[in-house]
Amino acid sequence: MAALPLVLAGCGTGTGRTMLPESTALTLAGGETSIDTNCTGCNGTRAGGGAVYRITAMQVDGAPADVTWTLSGGDAKAGAGSMNSAGEYTPPGFLTADRVEVTLTAQLKSDPSTTATTHLSITPGFLEPLAPENAAVAPGGTITLSGRLAQAGGNTAIRFAVTGGAHESGAGTLGPVDCTHAHDTFTTCTVTYTAPTTMDAANDVTYVEARAGAAKTETAILLSATGVTSNPARHREALSWPVALGGSGGNNGDLDAHGSTVADCCGGTLGALIADTNGHQYLLSNNHVLARSDHAATGDAIVQPGLIDNNCTPYGDGPGTASIASLSAWLPLKSAQTNADAAIAQIGSRTVDQSGTILELGSKQADGTLGAAAPGISSTDGKGETGKLTMRVAKSGRTTGLTCGAVTAVDVDVNVDYFADCAETRPYLTKLFTHQLALSGDRFSDAGDSGALVVDAANAEPVGLFFAGGVDASGVVQAMATPAPEVLSELGAQAGAGTSYSFVGGADHAVSCLSYGDSAVAAAQREPLSTVEMARASQALFAARLLVNPTQGILGVALGKSSDRVGEAAIVVYVDEAMTPNVPVQVGGVRTMVIPTTAQAVAAGSAPVANTMTVASGLSATALNRAMQAKQQAARQWMQENSAIFGVGVGQSLDNPREAALVIYVDRSRLPKDLPQTLDGVRTRYIVMDRLHVTRSYMTAGPAQKCMAKPIVATPQFEPRATLPLF
User: What's the pTM?
Assistant: First the structure.
């Protein structure tokens, strides 16, 4: 029989230990041999998303081998993890020691005597980012940060450091680290950060980094020169009745149970309050938050906080969470006729503030914190505002609290993946949403913010319902929201009988805009260019020099980097800032980057190398309409034909903000070789990231969590519900 090598898929170095049977030599090559429980160091991504350690069994000629996998060793309490038939290994969710060894053995089905064995060293890893993962701190202010390590017992501690931001080594100081180790709960370490007593006139962002072994995470600290203090941790707490919205909540049955043990649970954001024409009031959030992605039942209890913030203990099994609403209806995801991820739940008597207040949507208080306030409805009579390109928006969510970003694309068609379980191991469906809003900004949102209401930062009018997102390859949050008027319209249409819905709120008012910036351009300009790209751009530069004509407004050209396509070269074309000359989209097959400046700056070599901000009024209706047509005709068809393209909309070009661009979302794990610079003559901007998935948050229950959820339905305190037929 031919030799059967086992190859660890992926990149990296390191060689596993090998057991050689008498009759056949087996080899192991490639891959890492040390990972943590959060799969840091894992070498692959499973089909439904999420890190996985993939091992491929191959015959000596490279053909796949049919093998049976067995596991041994691992943690005394958490086990050895799991391996599926595809050779994808998932580590245990936690450890009770500082390090454990897991043995993975492949046995050839056609010859059980032929085996190969490798060993993985598993260390504890973070299950969640630091809490909070972002915060605003006033001069001299303090905030306590908490990290949770997937380890029950052991002595591993989390190491903290201040880093980054405008100050190379970070700004501010840290106090001593305090860790709690126990055999029945995960290790928790806390540290107090103190901001500097003086700050620049403008806000700055610094970071507190946490490390444990190979695992790393960080909290972004917005140094607020205006004296605002904002700690998103409040959004995860149990709130006093009547509760304000914008905080943690979800379905009381939103958990995964194995026998009598709760393995993990989910949670999202209770977004806003709406009312029907009969005056009944309802919580508004996502289907996947309130209705468990079509898997709930009418009358299910909606709890605050969500199970994720109560150690996965449901209402009825223990204290810590309360039933505040009864699930009324949802727009089924499985229906081709729905175009929103939305659900409503009728509020109980005195459980929710009937004025519709949302955490931190109000003005700064005497102590620097932001008060709760209702969204603005006076301009639209509660029907919501139409989101426009470059609009500054804010949202108040369970995980990141109050944050601000911008509308970066409109009319977005996007495929979003849904799962039937919290841990996202059982795919449910992939749904195409059309005419959505794309939002972006550093730290704008994260898992658990699902269901948050997106409002116009200028007047607090509802703009959209946030439901999906992720982080692109540059580290910028990319989020999706369904336009607020569309959400209300679909809910009303399905209710029928003349029923309509409106947002509950008050007078329009400005929102304190806590913005952590947008590093899209900066990240693109940091990316090094390959030798091939440099050579390609150098050749194009000769042709580009023929464009220079100061009397026509073109002052000079230079080599640069594209911000629309990270890692691609660009020809920088400097134009007179007082003129609007026509500049081709590409020269010699290389993108152009158009930068308004002055002749003096070009002559002195002080002109910028990239556009650092968009031009809010730069896009004409003609340019926008042309891009819309290109999206409908070319980009949508391209998306349908290429599975790596999971979203397309219309936005601004970062290389020339005065031009529209087709904003195209590309699966980073299936990146096509060629990505066109234009489609139907319109610039393209590519956002490379993992496929979008819904952004409720989930946690692994602690090792002591053994309760079994009981179904909880509405109690008599709830009034009769208005009927909303389900698809």
Answer: 0.85
